[in-house]
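Inverse folding, one chain.
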């Protein structure tokens, strides 16, 4: 049964409501005015962003946090190019996202009209599916397929272009059913083979990562690990798949990995990689496993059959979603774990030593002890605090020393996109205002998307934002000193007063330069965000020489100079 005649914009918004959309992010554009008009009378909250990159990052964070596709609307040309960073992040992070782009009218197509771009070509390698809806009566079909593609198999982004004349055209067309994500399940034979490989193992390790995880899947994989006495590591920026206080958690496998955990990965005689792509970051530049045939016996479980065997030829490859596979693993008859059960506490002891106060801060030489600040934050904030960050050396303090709680308490880009932390934090607080949200951001990171603090104020999203200000692009400076010692170029920053900037936006801002001043400042930030429902910024000003927990720029420079001289 068809609806009465509706405009394309109204058909589209009705379709979004059929598929359960409650929030969309975006920057308004003249190219999709009819959609904006239809949103006016809908139950969908449209969050107005300050730049399309921030909007796409917020939609991506929504997708991570909820498991449902994040929805983003941008205008053609410049809006679409700005939003591409969020699409790329969603692709590499396996996050469901749908980007709608206002497009020039079909009557102007292929003339390089004002801001015209062929989005199939632009986004071809960056999305799971890119299409353009040329006829209003086909909108429900396209939207249903977009949700299906974004959530089935390996989740990811979909891009749909919306020609301006199509959105104002009228059509009589029925709505579709709500989408149903489709995931593969392992066969009983594959589960039996995995169990047989476990029976033969002496040093197994379970590595969790990737998309499609749910609370139930995390609970099931926890049962599997406990029943079989398995040490569990989490892949780069998927550290919240197992509560870090769980006795089986042994650390994260990614950038800056604990060397002792890296050795355990290399020495494992059975590696069960459940969910991660086993990409460059998780494998430490493809060094933890040899390619294409690893030395370890490898079981690789992933939702996308095309990912399996693409880099590593696992002995057992299982195409399966996390909930479907974890449910079967939890029901599997346990094996005798006596040969390796003792390794869990050994690895836990190595993790505790790795997370202890770094020597660079021992003796109180530095005015601002960044390790102690993380301890103060961990002690003051709830276990279910959502921690967000983007890219940069400052993120080490969140990755190495923060002990993540249950899923979903970590939002960070495996794509290494700078500028992610602030929009993700704002989105998290909008989506779940009852939870504490803590954002780590470097000075360079903040300056890329810090304008989204205005969005936080507008929607009363009271996140706590820690700005690590060392007046440089620290990661690049570190690499620069290693490769070109003493030749600083293009990495120095002259920054604003971040605390004053936060106040100008309508939030609270403080500057901290001494360790003892941080805990009281954090207390004030917590009180302010709880009472006012507005963001609070704590700017940390510290010596940029303290570039990582284990090294200073000075030592990196001297070592590089010695190596070049030798």
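Residues assigned per position:
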């Amino acid at each position: 049964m068809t609806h009465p005649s509706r405009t394309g914009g109204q058909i589209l918004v009705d379709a979004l409501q059929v598929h359960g959309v409650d929030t969309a992010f975006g920057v308004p554009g003249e190219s999709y005015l009819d959609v904006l008009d239809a949103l006016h009378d809908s139950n969908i909250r449209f969050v107005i962003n300050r730049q399309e990159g921030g909007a796409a990052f917020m939609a991506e964070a929504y997708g991570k946090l909820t498991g449902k596709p994040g929805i983003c609307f941008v205008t053609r040309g410049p809006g679409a190019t700005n939003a591409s960073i969020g699409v790329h992040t969603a692709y590499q992070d396996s996050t469901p996202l749908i980007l709608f782009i206002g497009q020039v009218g079909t009557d102007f197509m292929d003339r390089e009209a004002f801001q015209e771009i062929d989005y199939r070509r632009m986004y071809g390698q960056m999305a799971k599916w890119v299409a353009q809806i040329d006829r209003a009566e086909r909108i429900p079909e396209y939207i249903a397929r977009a949700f299906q593609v974004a959530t089935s198999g390996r989740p990811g982004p979909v891009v749909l272009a919306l020609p301006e004349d199509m959105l104002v055209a009228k059509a009589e067309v029925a709505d579709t059913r709500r989408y149903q994500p489709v995931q593969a399940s392992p066969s009983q034979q594959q589960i039996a083979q995995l169990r047989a490989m476990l029976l033969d193992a002496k040093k197994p390790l379970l590595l969790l990562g990737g998309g499609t995880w749910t609370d139930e899947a995390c609970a099931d994989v926890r049962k599997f690990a406990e029943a079989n006495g398995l040490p569990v590591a989490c892949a780069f920026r998927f550290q919240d798949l197992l509560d870090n206080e769980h006795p089986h958690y042994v650390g994260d496998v990614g950038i800056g990995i604990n060397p002792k955990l890296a050795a355990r990965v290399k020495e494992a005689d059975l590696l069960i990689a459940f969910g991660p792509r086993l990409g460059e970051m998780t494998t430490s530049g493809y060094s933890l496993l040899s390619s294409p045939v690893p030395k370890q016996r490898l079981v690789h479980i992933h939702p996308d059959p095309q990912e399996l065997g693409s880099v590593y030829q696992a002995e057992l490859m299982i195409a399966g979603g996390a909930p479907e596979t974890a449910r079967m693993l939890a029901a599997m008859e346990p094996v005798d774990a006596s040969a390796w059960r003792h390794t869990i506490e050994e690895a836990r002891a190595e993790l505790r030593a790795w997370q202890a106060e770094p020597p660079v801060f021992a003796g109180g030489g530095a005015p601002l002890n960044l390790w102690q600040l993380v301890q103060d934050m961990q002690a003051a904030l709830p276990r279910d605090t959502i921690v967000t960050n983007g890219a940069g050396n400052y993120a080490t303090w969140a990755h190495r020393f923060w002990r993540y709680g249950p899923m979903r308490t970590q939002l960070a880009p495996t794509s290494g996109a700078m500028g992610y932390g602030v929009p993700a934090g704002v989105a998290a607080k909008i989506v779940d205002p009852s939870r504490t949200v803590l954002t780590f951001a470097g000075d360079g990171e903040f300056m890329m998307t810090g304008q989204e603090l205005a969005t936080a104020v507008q929607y009363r999203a009271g996140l706590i934002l820690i700005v690590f200000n060392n007046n440089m692009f620290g990661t690049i400076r570190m690499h620069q000193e290693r490769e070109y010692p003493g030749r600083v170029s293009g990495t120095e920053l002259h920054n604003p007063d971040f605390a004053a900037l936060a106040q100008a936006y309508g939030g609270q801002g403080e500057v901290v330069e001494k360790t003892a001043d941080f805990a009281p400042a954090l207390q004030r930030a917590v009180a302010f965000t709880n009472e006012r429902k507005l963001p609070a910024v704590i700017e940390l000003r510290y010596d940029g020489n303290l570039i990582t927990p284990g090294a200073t720029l000075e030592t990196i420079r001297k070592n590089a100079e010695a190596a070049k001289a030798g």
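The chain has 21 helices and 20 strands. The chain has a mean pLDDT of 94.
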